Amino acid sequence: MVNTELDRMVSEFAQRIQQQGLDLQTYFQISGQDESQLREQMKDDAEQRVKTNLTLTAIAEAEKIEATDEDIDKELEKMSKQFNISVEDIKNTLGNTDIIKNDVRIQKVIDLLRDNAKFVEGTKED
């Protein structure tokens, strides 16, 4: 799971630097790093992401939270407006809506946690 998340993080990083006009190999030459060093640098974050996702998924299952077709359609519409591309193009790019479905489900869990959070004043320790 951590390796899969690391793959995703490296891919996201490559996309970000591509937007700045670099490719990953050029970045490695400039930074003096290689992919294994970059992955090692990202490992703690990847582990944290996996733990967070597992926790949120467990809450979704315990609370029987699902993303409906309507939820997915709303998210696709939002993405369509954000990226100025058609919903059909998004669907074609993704191949299926499983990623969107999971993202919406996790967002519903986060909303549930936020809505039910109870804030307490901390005590000042001297």
UniProtKB/TrEMBL annotation:
The protein, known as: Trigger factor (Prolyl isomerase)
Molecular function per GO: peptidyl-prolyl cis-trans isomerase activity
Domain annotation Trigger factor C-terminal: ranges: 1-113
Entry-linked InterPro entries: Trigger_fac_C (IPR008880), Trigger_fac_C_sf (IPR037041), Trigger_fact/SurA_dom_sf (IPR027304)
Enzyme Commission designation: 5.2.1.8
Keywords noted in UniProt: Isomerase, Rotamase
Pfam families: Trigger_C
Catalytic class of the enzyme: isomerase
SUPFAM superfamilies: Triger factor/SurA peptide-binding domain-like (SSF109998)
Gene: tig_2
Gene3D superfamilies, sorted: Trigger factor, C-terminal domain (1.10.3120.10)
GO biological process: protein folding; protein transport
